Amino acid sequence: MTAPVTIRIQSADFDIVAETAALTKGRTDIGAVVSFTGICRGGAGDKAIAAMTLEHYPGMAEAEIGRHVAEALARWPLQGVTVIHRHGCVVPGDNIVLVLAASVHREAAFHAAEFLMDYLKTNAPFWKSEERANGTKWVEARADDDDALARWTR
């Protein structure tokens, strides 16, 4: 059986419980689902974020995420994958991204979810700007995110 894959980019929030239920409904071959949910943080003081705007290239973003999901499916024995990424304006406390990786055993699900998040954090075609009290600025790439992604090529 081919592992079901769901990839969505949407402005609306998502329901983690409903997405997990949709991935596992009627499946007795799944022994583990690892989930990662990225949430917009607020921060404090002059680092406080009032809002974040996420932009993407429609079509291209889904295709690129699909390419990396296919790589995860080739690397690990997965029973299913869900990736949902929001676009538009989010505020502190809002969900941004959801990755679900399902497998017979936990190890593959953990590795696949971490691999996909490392990719999404560094190379997915999304651009983020943060709105703070002192203005709005684009979020720069971070070296430690690149280091996290590099470990998958070793």
Explained architecture:
The strands form 2 sheets. This protein has a 4-stranded mixed sheet, sandwiched between helices. A hairpin with a 2-residue loop joins β7 (126-132) and β8. The protein is built from 4 helices and 8 strands. The chain is an alpha+beta fold and 154 residues long. The mean pLDDT is 92. The radius of gyration is 16 Å and the shape is globular.
What is the topological layout?
Blueprint: E1 5-10, H1 16-24, E2 32-39, E3 51-56, H2 60-75, E4 78-86, E5 88-90, E6 95-103, H3 106-122, E7 126-132, E8 135-138, H4 143-150
Parallel strand pairs: 1-4
Antiparallel strand pairs: 2-6, 3-5, 3-7, 4-6, 7-8
Could you give the order of strands across the largest sheet?
A: 1-4-6-2
Q: Helix segment count?
A: 4
The CATH topology is Aldehyde Oxidoreductase, domain 3
Radius of gyration from CA coordinates: 16 Å
Number of strands: 8
What sort of overall outline do the alpha carbons produce when their principal axes are compared? globular
CATH architecture group name: Alpha-Beta Complex
The helix/strand series, from N terminus to C terminus, equals EHEEHEEEHEEH
Oligomeric state of the chains in view = single chain
Measured between the Cα atoms of the first and last residue, the distance is 30 Å
Please tell me the overall pLDDT.
Answer: 92
The fraction of residues in strands falls at: 25-35%
Give a quick summary of the entry.
With 154 residues, the chain is an alpha+beta fold. Helices cover 32% and strands 34% of the residues. It has a single domain (5-153), classed as Molybdopterin biosynthesis MoaE subunit (Aldehyde Oxidoreductase, domain 3).
